[in-house]
């Protein structure tokens, strides 16, 4: 909210704009807008400055695809701790934030409550396993360890996995996350898993692991993609 700072962020190539668009592009569905540095507005803790920013950011995020009614706007000062963990006495004009969404309403006074009001996304465990490889390691005494994040489904030791597009099939010996053995890995988990009789040279980043017995990944003649153009000079016909 500092004088001139918001203007830079929201300008044509500003970071505020870019971050909001990137978040939406990457599939981040829930947003909180913390209006920071309220202590350095002119005058300090200015209600009109907060309202000006709220109005402008609301109109911008609406154009991107967010619903401003479902977004909490919280005036804060990270430096002084205002409205971070408890309501600030410096902004008596701020009556709190409120959001409306189909899952229900929420309201509060500070940033931490807005964070607590974020709804955890459902993990798609019931879909067939898909795990795109980020890397493949060879670890002495263990063997070949592909690494990646489970996107859908569940990965367990004993699963017979197939790697597309190379069509290599093998058994998963063990699954690890943060150096601890897992009985199962679910969507969102970033894991390493040890596979039998496959050399590190046969696998590579970008391959996708699936369960050979449950709709494994396979080639497609065509597919439907969602394409979002971040910045393009001129018109795309």
TrEMBL record:
Compartments where found: Cytoplasm
Name of the protein in question: Elongation factor 1 alpha
Pfam families (UniProt xref): GTP_EFTU, GTP_EFTU_D2
Keywords attached to this entry: Cytoplasm, Elongation factor, GTP-binding, Nucleotide-binding, Phosphoprotein, Protein biosynthesis
Gene Ontology cellular component annotations, sorted alphabetically: cytoplasm
Classification via CDD domains: EF1_alpha_II
Every Translation elongation factor EFTu-like domain range: 143-208
InterPro entries given in the database record: EFTu-like_2, P-loop_NTPase, T_Tr_GTP-bd_dom, TRAFAC_GTPase_members, Transl_B-barrel_sf
Domain of life: Eukaryota
Gene Ontology terms, MF aspect: GTP binding; GTPase activity; translation elongation factor activity
Residue span, Tr-type G domain: 13-120
């Amino acid at each position: 909210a500092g004088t001139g700072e918001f203007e830079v962020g929201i300008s044509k190539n500003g970071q505020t704009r870019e971050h909001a668009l990137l978040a939406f592009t990457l599939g981040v569905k829930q947003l909180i807008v913390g209006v920071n540095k309220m202590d350095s507005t002119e005058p300090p803790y200015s209600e009109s400055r907060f309202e000006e920013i709220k109005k402008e950011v609301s109109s911008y995020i609406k154009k991107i695809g967010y619903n401003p009614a479902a977004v909490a706007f919280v005036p804060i000062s990270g430096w002084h701790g205002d409205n971070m963990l408890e309501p600030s006495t410096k902004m008596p004009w701020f009556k709190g934030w409120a959001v409306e969404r189909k899952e229900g309403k929420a309201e509060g006074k500070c940033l931490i409550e807005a964070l607590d009001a974020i709804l955890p996304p459902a993990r798609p465990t019931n879909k067939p396993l898909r795990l795109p490889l980020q890397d493949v390691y060879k670890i002495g005494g263990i063997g070949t360890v592909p690494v990646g994040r489970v996107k859908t489904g569940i990965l367990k030791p004993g699963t017979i996995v197939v790697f597309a597009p190379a069509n290599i099939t093998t058994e998963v010996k063990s699954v690890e996350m943060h150096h601890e053995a897992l009985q199962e890995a679910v969507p969102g988990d970033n894991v390493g898993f040890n596979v039998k009789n496959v050399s590190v040279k046969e696998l590579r980043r970008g391959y996708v692991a699936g369960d050979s017995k449950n709709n494994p990944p396979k080639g497609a003649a065509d597919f439907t993609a969602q394409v979002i153009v971040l910045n393009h000079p001129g018109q795309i016909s």
